[in-house]
User: Fold this.
Amino acid sequence: MTMKGRRIRVLIAKPGLDGHDRGAKIVARSLRDAGMEVIYSGLRQTPEQIVKASIQEDVDAIGISLLSGAHMHLFSRILELLADEGAEDILIFGGGIIPDQDIPQLKAAGVKEIFQPGTHTDDIVQFLRNHVTPIDSEKGEHSL
Amino acid sequence: MNPSKPAKLPSHQAYLPEDIALDYQSDLGEPGEFPYTRGVYPTMYRGRPWTMRQFAGHGTAEETNRRFRFLLDQGQTGLSVAFDLPTLMGLDSDNPLSVGEVGKCGVAIDSLHDMEALFQGIDLARVSTSMTINAPAAVLLAMYVVVAEKQGLALDRIRGTLQNDILKEYIAQKEWIYPPEPSMRLIVDTIEFCSRHLPQYNSISISGYHIREAGSTAVQELAFTLRDGIEYVEACLLRGMSVDDFAPRLSFFFNSHNNFFEEIAKFRSARRLWARVMKDRFCAKDERSWMCRFHTQTAGCSLTMQQPENNIVRTALQALAAVIGGTNSLHTNALDEAWALPTESSAALALRTQQILAHESGITETVDPIGGSYYVEALTNRVEVASCDYIDRIDAMGGMVAAIERGYPQREVQEASFQQQRQVEKQESIIVGVNQFTEESDVPMETLQIGREVEEGQIKALARLKSKRSTSHVRSVLSNLKRDASSNQNLMPPLIEAVRSEATVGEISEALKDVFGIYQEPLS
Assistant:
């Protein structure tokens, strides 16, 4: 029997206090246009709310958008909470105003990729296709 | 309603006399005369250049005070305060939601002590101060008033500008606290208080800057901003104020983006349109009520992380457009702002850009040097017509608050922003260093770092403050504030009392949340 591959599910999340959602909304729409299922968290979600939503929605990846300079704290906190929930298989990527010198530390903490200003949305789509294999959590196996 | 496709204004090969149907007196007028298309003052920069006002703030009040003094020493002529995100959201530095954000995007202000430290050694009689604060604007104005009083300055000598524009927060920047109705009441309270006691102070800066940064077109920026202005005027009239008592102190704030002539046209049509609105729609008699006086900032969203030195050139061109367009004050962005907040040297270079324009380029020698250009006059007309069309549509929806509740301006801006991204990705619009003329490796930049010690320091200071001040007095002024918030009293006097009692920004905002509730964004 041929199984249709489940679509990649992504949570686009805005933690922290900044309200600049231009980038988050463009990325959400581009991923949707590329055939992915996208949930947008809305503004000012706490790391706890983001992790809870990602587990409830059974997402494959979380894209975190942050322009406030609080990325070191908020990214780490989200990764910690995911580990507490045993959900380290959810891929984390991010974007916003994040200087080069902070990227190695974020990657060492478990962030798979940081997309800085000027990124082509196709690159984000391709990145997710390359790194995410949607897992059907009910069957516990990779769908084809 | 579906968002409309944001169309680029088409251009002719060349513009001819027949492209500009103009009546000189009624459409342009002399500089300093209705409808002010050519400028709000007869002499403009011949008398005095625009105010050079660089937006600054980071870390603690003491650090920002040092940056302010540095900028004043470098020849800056006005102050402009950037607050951190917790302050913008009415949260104290010790709130769990503030973790990681304290002092990052601006200066952390929790109490009157911080505000006093911010202006330590700066004579408020000699500088005007602009404060970029919206949802808690009335609280920060109360703090500024108390600091000025402590310096011995009479209220009627306080000069400066309060951003105080919540409508563009709902549309674009999204730093709101309360729902529209109580937010509008707070704004009318501040405008009323300023009209009585602070005659030299701009009680609001009706802002298109953030709408443009969120991705709007030039026409959307202008139309939504002026329609926001109409909403504030109507709210003040409903309060029972007469238009000429407050309208002279309404001010505006625009973006200066990349399309040089379209931006100049936008500034010129802003003045003409607002003058017509104030005279015809609101029957204002005082000519100062007709004047659209505005601050401009070059477009932060146009700055690129790639080849950052290119940003110096972009900013210089955008600043030139703002000056040819007749801005009253100007902020020029620093080259490193797609990376982080500016360093001292990048901030100085941004200021130097303005000084070169003012003192070396010769553009200050005559007023409206581009007036009469077939192209610019035709564009000025077109921007005005397209903006009026949006204003009429929002009028038909019942005004801006009603339009915001339907998600209309938000959807329009989002659609425009998405289309722009598409154009860049398809190379229909070129960004040098990003989608053309790219270079393999970029040299790493030195950027400004804000450490965790700022947050730790603020938290300790708050604990000290709370142990020293009179808790019972703070409780009683906050309960008076809540009582007045539930009535229709002007809230500025109880806010000034609250600030004097050393109640914090977070405590005051919390008290008002109890009465006003909090805003929930409509799903779009």
